């Protein structure tokens, strides 16, 4: 199991040990590419300059890419869409020992640290609306409780702390978009669904491309150029995947 919070903490500690500097709460107004580097113009007038920049901002990627007159065909996650949005229920600490992700037809369950669980029921996602996340006393919450009880009959009553509507970073063809997007190859993008799951591999491949200037054969089919200058409607609808049904 890859625990996101622990994973990110470890990555940051290693980056900090190698001299990385973390800038927080500094919105980027625009990106300017030069032949020998790239400049980020920040909201309070400051500038950051470097050799390259990697845009790994998920479903918000186009907000930055648009400042370079670049846009990728990504799914619209602002509206109800079962392919782009999903209910996620976070529980209170539960009396259940689970050390791996559990994928079942009625419920997906992931350990979330401290005894908490993260629940997902893909069959409910047709009702997922980012503008109206359900309460813990809603019919959706009751569905989660019933499905949990049918899966763990002896685990006691499920306590749900919060339900959110997750909005996926998803290119219009469902595949990762990874690579340079500008003529001088100073701006690099990495946008994909299942980002946490894929990040150990993608992070290594991206770092090798940036540092060694060597294009990875493993990323050849996932370059962002196939999405540039196109809209999501230009692509066939993404087929919904129910892993437990395979």
UniProtKB/TrEMBL annotation:
InterPro entries: FAD-dep_OxRdtase, FAD/NAD-bd_sf. Transmembrane segments: none annotated. This is FAD-dependent oxidoreductase. Keywords: Oxidoreductase. GO terms for cellular component: cytoplasm. It comes from the Bacteria. Residues 2-208 form the FAD dependent oxidoreductase domain. GO terms for molecular function: oxidoreductase activity.
């Amino acid at each position: 199991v890859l625990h996101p919070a622990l994973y990110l903490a470890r990555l940051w500690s290693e980056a900090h040990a190698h001299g990385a500097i973390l800038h927080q709460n500094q919105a980027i107004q625009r990106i300017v590419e030069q032949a020998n580097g790239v400049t980020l113009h920040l909201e309070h007038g400051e500038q950051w300059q470097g050799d390259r920049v990697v845009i790994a901002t998920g479903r918000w990627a186009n907000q930055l890419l648009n400042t370079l007159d670049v846009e990728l065909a990504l799914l619209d996650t602002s509206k109800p869409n079962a392919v782009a949005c999903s209910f996620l229920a976070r529980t209170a600490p539960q009396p259940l020992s689970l050390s791996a992700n559990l994928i079942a037809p009625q419920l997906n369950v992931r350990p979330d640290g401290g005894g908490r669980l993260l629940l997902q029921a893909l069959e409910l996602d047709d009702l997922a609306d980012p503008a109206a996340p359900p309460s813990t006393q809603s019919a959706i919450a009751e569905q989660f409780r019933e499905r949990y009880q049918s899966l763990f009959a002896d685990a006691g009553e499920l306590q749900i702390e919060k339900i959110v509507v997750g909005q996926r970073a998803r290119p219009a063809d469902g595949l990762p978009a990874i690579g340079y997007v500008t003529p001088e190859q100073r701006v690099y993008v990495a946008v994909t669904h299942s980002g946490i799951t894929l990040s150990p591999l993608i992070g290594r491949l991206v770092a090798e491309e940036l540092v060694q200037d060597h294009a990875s054969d493993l990323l050849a089919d996932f370059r962002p150029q196939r999405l540039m200058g196109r809209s999501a409607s230009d692509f066939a609808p993404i087929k919904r995947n129910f892993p437990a049904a395979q």
